[in-house]
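Notes continue from the previous slide.

Worked example: a multi-chain complex. Inputs as given:
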Amino acid sequence: MFTYVLRRLVQSIIVLLVVMLITFTLPYFEPNGILGPAYIVLGTHATPQTIHLWGLQNGMDHSYPVRFWNYIDQVFFHFNLGHSYKQNLSVWNIISLYVPRTIWLALSSLILTVLIAIPLGIYQASRRNSSFDYIATGTAFVLYGIPAFLLGILMLQFFSFGVVHLPASPPGGVAPWAMFTNPAGFILPVLTLTLLSIAFLSRFMRSAVLEVLVQDYIRTARAKGCSRRQVLFSHSFRNALGPIIIILGLYLPALLGGAVVIESVFNYSGLGIQIITAATTLDIPTVLGITLLVSVLTLAGNLIADIMLGVVNPRIRIQGRGQ
Amino acid sequence: MIDNHESPAGAHDVVLSDSQLADEIVPLWRQRVNIFLHNKFAIASVLFLLATVFFCYAGPLLYHSNQTDQATALNVAFNAPPSSHHLLGTDSSGFDELGRIMYGGEYSLSLGMLAGLITIVVGTIYGMISGFLGGIVDTIMMRLLDAFLSIPLLFLLITLIAIFQRSTVFLIVIIGVTGWFGNARIIRGDALLIKKLEYSQAAVAMGASKWHVIRRHVFPNSMSNIVTVATFSVADAILFLSTLGFLGLGIPAPQIDWGTMMQNGAVQQPNGFWWEIYPTALLFVLVIVAITYVGEALRDAFEVRLLER
């Protein structure tokens, strides 16, 4: 188990370094090149001489590999992701202000999704081809074809401007605990994100359980006299858990991407609104910082999923093949 | 060439005439076309997509309105509900909604198709090379792909747009260049499988070059997957373009696409101006569902197990 975790960890770090190489190289392509920040920092004092001097002070004259090493050093050991072009804050400050808000949104919908989608998938698999199964599959198919922003708009139409008058937007500001002090405003965003995820996840759960249900050990268990329910929840559930954990790990980027769109629809200031504002105002360090953070979260999610997979399924940690 | 025609032993004692034989041997591609044609929903989807393309590209020639001319839009009531004059009302700039849907559709559809084309070309080349060469090249190329895949796609798109500025051409390139990762994985799996099959091995044993094996064996035999994946790629490209449009990062101002139109409509949503959003949204969702359905039908048609039912 230990070597398995270690190998996956090393793999993730290598991938992270490649991602950092990408986020490090991209600023070379911005309109003012890597000296872009100098124009912002110096403002009206930006002359060719002062810009050159700023470049020297910040090590811009070093070679590409040396600069990359400095970048890694700054990011890893000093949490220095640069300074925002538009807000008078460091990128790290912006991230630490808004990341809890996005995490609460994503996490609460993820928990709801797991609580609903897994039983739903198991039930659909056990009542395969029943009318309930068809309705649930059909609904999932429709939800799957609707882009996140459109589902948000429809939710607003029905539950905010329609019959029910739920708040159309969560409270503004930067309070990280807003979800708990003022939950009414969060019903619609969380519900929208959850619906999208359920449509995605319940299909996988259904097919994973179906795949397990035809195995020999299920028949054996039934033959030994286990009840249908016992087989469904103790035998098939644990064996179907593997694929679901992988899917959850892979789903993380989509969840974060969905959160960006949902934040934008419901006007909830989190990382999503920040990165979109930064992108429209060409605040490149903020965009790169948030992208790097989200990539780290994704990598961590995949790593945790793989390790949990090893815990659930002994075959993987003994054989030592994660993917 | 065709060996899927198996005559059951003893069933035909009568010698078949030539014409009867010709009836029975159906070329493989014809069988696939038949499977596709049997799928009524798939035919309906194709017809619907053709109708939509006709509506968007030929529509403006037949339906004259102020969909592109800002000057003529100035004399029109803004946010006017549907009337005989403006069949689907006008938007918040006074443009005719119906004409706008056609005009926006031209951009959404052509950008989606071009970006989808890029994803499939790049994905196929990358996947073929990686899967066919194998070994250390494959490992490096796949780890690189892991790195690309661990940057969530939407964030990668936003980052590239922020750095390179947005223009119509650049949006095509950017969506194409970031959309091929998944395709490359699928095509690589195909290439890995096909190069191990007997006919590829035989070709190698007879001294065929790598390029020859890729061109004559691996590529034609993964064509089914390539076509299917291409269909889904176009749907994905249209979806991503619309999401970017909705986030305000889509096609720049004088031009418009369906995503940006829905964004503009969403702003008017609290006022109850339904005609500015739902007609566009309905057409958009139907197009996406139709393309996805055609993709699924193509996958069925290429599925070997469904042949010779």
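Summary box: The longest helix of chain A spans residues 228-266. Residues 122 and 169 of chain A are 34 Å apart (CA to CA).
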